[in-house]
Design goal:
Layout: H1 22-25, H2 34-47, H3 50-55, E1 74-84, E2 91-100, E3 103-114, E4 117-123, H4 127-132
Antiparallel strand pairs: 1-2, 2-3, 3-4
């Protein structure tokens, strides 16, 4: 993984990287909420950290190999809605838009806690179209 030294975390939390997603990507601590995990996964895409993406993807839905397009330059993250996914819950949803040079990704992601760890499960089908309608 190649980390560019950035004073603020790429996830747009307005926190320093080392106080936000840095410790999660370095596996120094676990995410305590679904939103925290989602932000760390965005940051992993930002830096091209396939290992973090793989270890935070639910075992039942993750691909055999996680790929990151090195040509994609991620430029921002906006969280539209967070449903559940708190420190004492087992499921959560994070609705977001991630922008990159030349486009954007709209997704309503589902997360699940297993054994005390949050995992990205999948994208909720057709949910973004309903939000945008």
């Amino acid at each position: 993984m190649t980390e560019v030294q950035c004073p603020l975390c790429p996830c747009d939390s307005l926190l320093p990287y080392d106080a936000c997603c840095g410790p999660l990507l370095r596996a120094e601590r676990l995410a305590t909420t679904a939103e925290q995990l989602m932000r760390s996964r965005y940051t992993a895409y930002f830096y091209g950290d396939r290992e973090h993406l793989w270890r935070t993807w639910h075992p039942k839905t993750r691909p055999a190999q996680v790929t990151v397009d090195p040509e994609t330059s991620w430029t921002g993250l906006v969280i539209h809605e967070v449903v559940a996914g708190g420190e004492h819950e087992d499921t959560g949803i994070v609705d977001f838009t991630a922008t990159y040079t030349g486009g954007h990704l709209d997704e309503r992601s589902r997360f699940e806690r297993r054994g005390g760890r949050w995992f990205y499960r999948d994208a909720q089908p057709d949910a973004v179209a309903a939000r945008d309608a």
